[in-house]
Amino acid sequence: MSPSSATSRARELLGVGSLTNKALRTWLHGLPGVDQVGIEARAAALATRSIKTTSKEWAIDTAIGMIDLTTLEGADTPGKVRSLCAKAKLPDPTDLGTPQVAAVCVYGDMVHIARESLGDSGIHVAAVATAFPSGRASLAVKLADTKDAVRAGADEIDMVIDRGAFLAGDYRLVFDQIAAVKEACARTGDEPDAHLKVILETGELATYDNVRRASWLAMLAGADFIKTSTGKIQPAATMPVTLLMLEAVRDWRELTGELVGVKPAGGIRTSKDALRYLVMVSEVAGDDWLTPQRFRFGASSLLTDLLLQRQKLRTGVYSGADYVTID
């Protein structure tokens, strides 16, 4: 979808003749306000749901298959990325039945290493782009960053929105940048385009109303996924924020018939947390989102606890953390 076609589509969906910043602002600020007490109470209530042992086995395997195994450090080396890819393909060497993770997420200059290491495993290569994590760069730099990663073999691009522009009310600028990055995800020939995951950095958006507006703005501009956080800012993923984003993709489907994915990232560390999120996905958005194509966890440390819980269900014995490889 080109920026011009994204604009035309947004105009049609919003029922406006011209997609000006004023039109976007009027529409986004016309969305229902978020009841803070209500959204937090509902998230807390969903977190109390219990899961039977048989369902727990399925839920743990489902959560493993939804993880984006990630390394985003300045000290990343080719060896570290290869090691991460080996873990992605075989998370638990003691149990060959353990599911693979959904994707390996790296900086753009490491995409070719991950692509080579993962081969035909079916695991996606995701690359953070657009001056991650700050998003402070010109559009030309952001597009070059994206195109380099796509050329290197990235299946997914995780971009960050310009939070400064969003908080200043320059919604059209944010829309245009998302639409342009979406176009930069295109490939020539028969190869599928890279999917675009738009990071809202909800910890910097200040209010639940802003999270709802940013979610809708990203979807209007062509996002395939909306993602909570870079993992570099606190608070990162929270259940109330993820609940809001799940409501947004549910409502988007009712409006357009399209399914947009959701990715909470940062701060999800235990199997208990992951299962709470899966319950929320089912209750709020629906079971069509209980798949790696529609829901991801950006939480590498979560994998260790999921593997330990899986071992306990399989053997009846709870192993220590040293029984699982550390990223």
From TrEMBL:
The protein's Enzyme Commission number: 4.1.2.4
One of the GO BP terms on file: deoxyribonucleotide catabolic process
Catalytic reaction equation(s): 2-deoxy-D-ribose 5-phosphate = D-glyceraldehyde 3-phosphate + acetaldehyde
CDD domains, per database record: DeoC (cd00959)
Pathway: Carbohydrate degradation; 2-deoxy-D-ribose 1-phosphate degradation; D-glyceraldehyde 3-phosphate and acetaldehyde from 2-deoxy-alpha-D-ribose 1-phosphate: step 2/2
UniProt enzyme class: lyase
A Gene Ontology cellular-component term: cytoplasm
GO molecular function list: deoxyribose-phosphate aldolase activity
Keywords annotated in UniProt: Lyase, Schiff base
Family: Belongs to the DeoC/FbaB aldolase family. DeoC type 2 subfamily.
NCBIfam families: deoC
Annotated protein name in UniProt: Deoxyribose-phosphate aldolase
Gene expressing this chain: deoC
